[in-house]
Structure formats: C-alpha cells, structure tokens
Amino acid sequence: MAGEHSRTAFVLADGGSLRAVQIGMPLALTEAGLRPDFVIGSSVGALNAAHFAGAPDLAGVKQLAQIWCGLRRADIFPLSPSGLLEVVRGSGSIVDPSQLRRVLEAHLSFARIEERACPCM
Q1: CB atoms within 10 A of CB 64
Q2: By three-state DSSP, how is residue 60 classified?
Q3: Which of 34, 67, 91, 121 is the most exposed place for a label (fewest CB within 10 A)?
C-alpha cells in the first residue's frame, strides 16, 4: 500500500545446541548487504540477537561465531553435585547463572539494552 514502510527483522529462535550454527543466517544476510531494523530472539537466540544488536555488521557476526566456537558447556552451564542436591531439596537450581552472566559481560558491547546499536527485543 502507498505510504507504508516495510521493516526488516532478523529472528533468532531457540536451539541451544545450534547456538553457533544459528549464526549462519545473520552471516549470510549481512554478507548479502541486508541490515535489519531490529532483531528478535528467544532463549539462546536472545543471546545471539543481543550480541548482534551491539555489533550489527559482518565483523560482529564473525566475532559471535568465534565466541561460540571457543565456548564449552561448562563455560556457561557448569553442573555440580551440590546444585543437583539443592534441586532435590527444592531450594535451588542445577545451574548457577553467574557463569552465563560472566560470558555476557565479557562479550556484549553494551551494559544496558538501551545502549545497543540496533533495536533488540
């Protein structure tokens, strides 16, 4: 329709085990010259979307791929017998989120979502 503006979004879905593989979509689109008006993600896709929102260009996507290739499960989700015991007792969780927080703080280019270069939901 006349007067309407189209908007482009990159949508990065869940897929914990596909975390690095998922980077192929924004890589291909960015290489093709597409730039989103905003990015959306859920679960691990939200982590990828947040990183992309801070560096919405080819270099940012390549950096994200390198980050995922360098991480191991224990870097983000360290399992421990004490965590399992707390779950059995009903007083905690299996995974301590502090490792994930450290990874995010080390790799995101912004501290607050309002500071990102591209809108992110």
Answers
A1: 24
A2: helix
A3: 91
Backbone phi, then psi, for 78, in 5-degree steps? -70, 120
Check if the beta carbon of residue 86 is closer than 8 Å to that of residue 28: no
Spatial CA neighbour of 42 closest among 10, 79, 2: 10
Q: Tens digits of per-residue pLDDT, 17-52?
A: 666 678 888 999 999 999 999 999 988 888 899 999
Alpha carbons 56 and 29: distance in angstroms, whole number: 11
For residue 11, what is the enclosing H or E element?
Answer: strand 9-12
Distance CA 119, CA 8 (A): 11
Tokens standing for 4? 């309407």
Encoded amino acid at 65, one letter: A
